[in-house]
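testing teh design pipeline on a random one, pls ignore if ur not involved
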């Protein structure tokens, strides 16, 4: 048994005072390379699964209960396993776990009485998909060895977040957590839910930098963006009924859209093009073009989609001022969380020192750095 599997097994046995050997599951967080706020518009995204992951140890109990303990929150919850389908959201972290159980039960899966020990190594609120990795790892634990199609698994985890946790997110985070590939990014088509593995050039290091801020605005702003994109689709569809989502729209049709929805739609349409251009540049090994697309994506998110913030902008500006940085951009939903940076190999330390010093001086906050090595998707590990 390797590190986390052994840790989780021991922690499970101590917490539940048992000798049982639990099954241990892992589901990774992610960093999105490009294709931001395109998933719920049925466009393209290009994330990688991280080494950082959420782990769940699970074993049956004889109490008829679904019990879970979160090491991160140091809190437990307990529900009657047989009646879980009628559970209501409670408005706290446990909704991400309970929501998965409720969705599985509604799909007709019996929720078996299990004890879960949950330990996430994905920084909470850092924009690296701590919630999706939690949902997916819990779903595997609750399935308890029963088979489920992988796309169905990603959709179910997303539904837990949409319908139970009340966050109208797209499919990207759950999908990459399920399908992640060691050594590759995935270009995901969020309309037909297929993917293509994207090999990244060897001569680049990817580093995520955490602003360590999360502005309150995030949740409402996300909902507003979803609605504004929908308004843009409706405006275009009045003239072009074939347009069902911004995936179907093009820049010429933007004249039919007014006000804020126009800027939002412009971001989404150009961002989808940037994903395709990024994948092509990656295949050619054209790192400067990949970096240029990163920066263009950031500016579009900053000015048209308006989901960036001072801290993210500062990290991007500082990064791209370094001659060994190909490009940088915010990643994830925005309003805090992380940037993702493409840098020349061997310059990681210099990058860290420079960015750390500048950011601390400006905001009096210590940023945190995560070297990114694309990892595999969710699985049972012990
Ligand atoms: C959050 C959501 C994703 C996606 C990104 C923005 O991470 O969970 O579905 O919309 O924001 O690209």
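output:
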């Amino acid at each position: 048994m390797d590190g986390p599997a052994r840790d989780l097994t021991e922690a499970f046995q101590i917490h539940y005072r048992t000798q049982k050997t639990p099954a241990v599951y892992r589901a990774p967080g992610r960093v999105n390379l490009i294709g931001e706020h395109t998933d719920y518009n049925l466009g393209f995204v290009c994330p990688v699964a991280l080494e950082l992951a959420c782990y769940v140890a699970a074993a049956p109990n004889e109490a008829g209960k679904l019990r879970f303990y979160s090491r991160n929150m140091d809190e437990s919850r307990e529900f009657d396993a047989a009646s879980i389908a009628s559970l209501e959201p409670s408005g706290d972290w446990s909704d991400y776990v309970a929501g998965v159980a409720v969705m599985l039960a509604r799909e007709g899966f019996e929720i078996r009485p299990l004890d879960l020990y949950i330990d996430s190594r994905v920084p909470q609120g850092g924009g690296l998909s701590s919630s999706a990795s939690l949902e997916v790892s819990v779903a595997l634990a609750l399935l308890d060895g029963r088979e489920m199609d992988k796309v169905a698994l990603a959709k179910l985890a997303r539904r837990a977040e949409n319908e139970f946790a009340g966050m109208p997110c797209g499919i990207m985070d759950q999908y990459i957590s399920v399908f992640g590939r060691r050594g590759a990014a995935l270009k995901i088509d969020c309309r037909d839910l297929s993917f293509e593995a994207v090999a990244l050039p060897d001569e680049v290091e990817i580093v995520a930098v955490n602003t360590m801020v999360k502005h309150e605005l995030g949740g409402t702003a996300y909902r507003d963006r979803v609605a504004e994109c929908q308004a843009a689709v409706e405006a275009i569809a009045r003239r072009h009924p074939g347009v069902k989502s911004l995936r179907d729209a093009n820049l010429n049709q933007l004249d039919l859209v007014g006000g804020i929805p126009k800027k939002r739609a412009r971001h989404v349409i150009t961002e989808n093009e940037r994903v395709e251009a990024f994948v092509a540049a990656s295949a050619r090994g054209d790192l400067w073009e990949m970096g240029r697309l990163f920066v263009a994506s950031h500016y579009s998110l900053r000015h048209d989609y308006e989901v960036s913030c001072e801290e993210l902008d500062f990290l991007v500006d500082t990064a791209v001022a370094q001659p060994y940085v190909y490009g940088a951009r915010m990643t994830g939903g925005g309003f805090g969380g992380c940037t993702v940076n493409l840098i020349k190999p061997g310059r990681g330390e210099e990058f860290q020192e420079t960015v750390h010093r500048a950011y601390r001086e400006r905001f009096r906050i210590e940023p945190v750095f995560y070297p990114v090595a694309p990892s595999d998707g969710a699985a049972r590990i012990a």
